[in-house]
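Journal club prep — side note

Before the paper discussion, L.F. wants everyone to see what a predicted structure for a comparable chain looks like in token form. Sequence:
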Amino acid sequence: MNKLTEDQIQELYKFTRAHFVYHFDLQTELVDHLANGIESLQAKNPHLSFQEALDKEFKKFGIFGFQDVIADRSKALSKKYWKIILRFYKEFFSLPKILLTLLLCVLLFIVLKETALGYQQYAITGVFLLFLIPATIKLVRYHRILKKKDRKWMLEEMLLANIGMINFIQIPIQLMNIRFEIENNYIILLLSIASITLLLLFYVMVFVIPPKAEELLEETYPEYKMMSTL
């Protein structure tokens, strides 16, 4: 079976980009799939040109082209992304980091307990804003890093872009519109725990995982280290 030339492989990469596949990892998967299909077709019919074989192979993806593949890959990597988050998030609920988690919960409980009724929402909003300001600065830096990269990896974009933070930004805004008058210690404690656990989740997403992106990408894509040195 004749193998495709390097120029033909590059043509396949261009073909995937032309069909709205922008992530290098997904491009590589599709190029490998297309190349194998083309080589198989040409082995059966040696007179079939590269372009004819490519057209035949692409038709197998249906009327939506690569979009279904992109959607499936995105779902699979989203699951992996949340597994990565959970891996690091769980550390805050086991020794020794659980001590820090408990301390933060107690401190927020004390703050809310000592805050005058009707002003507790401002205390919680302040806590969220203290996190949100440095987090936003970090996110801007991560987006700049992504923009500078010629090759975009889908998981890398998830690790650095932190799309979930968009929802987090809305929390302080919503809290400002809610008037809290909580006197019950148990409710204050539950509110403190809920707030801290949520803050820790986003802390992991913004401050813990992105610095480990290179390591995590090498775990996922064996070729990442080699490609990043080119």
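L.F.'s comment for the group: Residues 6-65 form one domain. Keep this in mind when we get to the figures.
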